[in-house]
Amino acid sequence: MIEIRPALPDDLDWLCKLEEESFSLPWTREQLEGQMSGENKLLLVAQLDGRPAGYMGLYWVLDEGYVTNVCTSAEYRRRGVASALINSVTERARELDLSFITLEVRASNAAAHSVYAKMGFNDVGVRPGYYEKPAEDAVIMTLYLKEVER
User: Fold this and answer.
1) Beta carbons within 8 Å of 75's beta carbon, 6+ residues apart
2) Annotated catalytic residue 104
3) pLDDT tens per residue across span 10-56
4) What are the b/e assignments for 63-93, b being 16+ CB within 10 Å?
5) Which of 41, 54, 88, 138 could bridge 4 with an S-S bond, Cβ 3.0-4.6 Å?
6) Three-state DSSP class for 80?
């Protein structure tokens, strides 16, 4: 069973290790710690069978939500962890009355792109050269939570 909860200071060692295993430019301990506290920030941890399995961060400005990172431990991939995190963040975004949630995904990351698309995110643009190590474009994906007035 997947449980979602707010990240705690005791999670920092695990979060740092997962960052280093998953990303070519991992967030620092200070960056992760900063995502846990302060106004307009949220960092959630997914636990599968009582063990940490992934995390997702969100920050918001006015009614706009921005995903900082989504990451699942390799041993827990394809078990619904990312989907559970996205559902929790989406629920929180609705509670906050956000208009949308947006994120970037590596153009080559077909698996993540597929998960986001299944969760209702749409491709809305490209950020050329957004990623480093290796250099790569980012696809901008957005989940609209409200009808847009025109």
Assistant:
1) 53
2) yes
3) 999 999 999 999 888 899 999 999 999 878 999 999 999 889 999 99
4) eebbbbbbbbbeebeebbbbbbbbebbbebb
5) 88
6) coil
Active site residue 30: no
Active-site residue, selected from the candidate residues 66, 104, 130, 144:
104
Please give the Cα distance from 140 to 105 (Å, whole number): 7
Indicate the helix (H) or strand (E) that contains 48: strand 41-48
β-strands 136-144, 100-106: how paired?
Answer: antiparallel
Angle formed at CA 41 by CA 39 and CA 43, multiple of 5 degrees:
140
End-to-end CA distance of the chain: 42
Taking the model in full, what pTM does it have?
0.91
Domains of the chain and CATH, by start: 2-102 (3.40.630.30)
